Amino acid sequence: MENQVSSKSVILNQGLYLGIVSILINLVVYALGNHLQPHWSVSVLFFVVLTVFIVMGMKQFKSGNGGFMSWGEAVKIGVGLTMISAVIVTIYNQIFMNFIEPDLMQQMSALQEQQWIDAGLSSDQIETSKEMMEKFQGPLITSAVGLLVSAIFGFIVSAIAGAVMKESAEDQY
Fold first, then answer.
1. To which H or E segment does residue 170 belong?
2. Which DSSP letter does residue 35 get?
């Protein structure tokens, strides 16, 4: 058992790859001009990619450990690599919003305001909504929300995949 794969190496490697793939998807969406209102299929693609990398990480760990992996190890691997990826994507998003597309938040606000007008909201309702929206547009808030959402999705996918893929020595007998 001295040739066991460490969960740390799996988490770092798969998390890095997931982060790079996520950034590439974001760049393609931006290049296509759909970054303000991406199609729902982009969200599905991100979820599929997340699931694939979590399962690949679990398989890599399990095969390097004699075919054994507990549910806890599976969740640790999945959430860990998701969070490594989330940190990488958060750094990319800050670079994107501050240097590549510095007026992104204003564009999104204008688009949201138009949607409120189209929905028939009064000017008072729109102003109240704009004030609330501005409170949640800072870099710290958007980063924290992004990390939290990533942790939640990473846990859900990891818990399900881990329950399916876990294997202990006791299960062998």
1. none
2. S
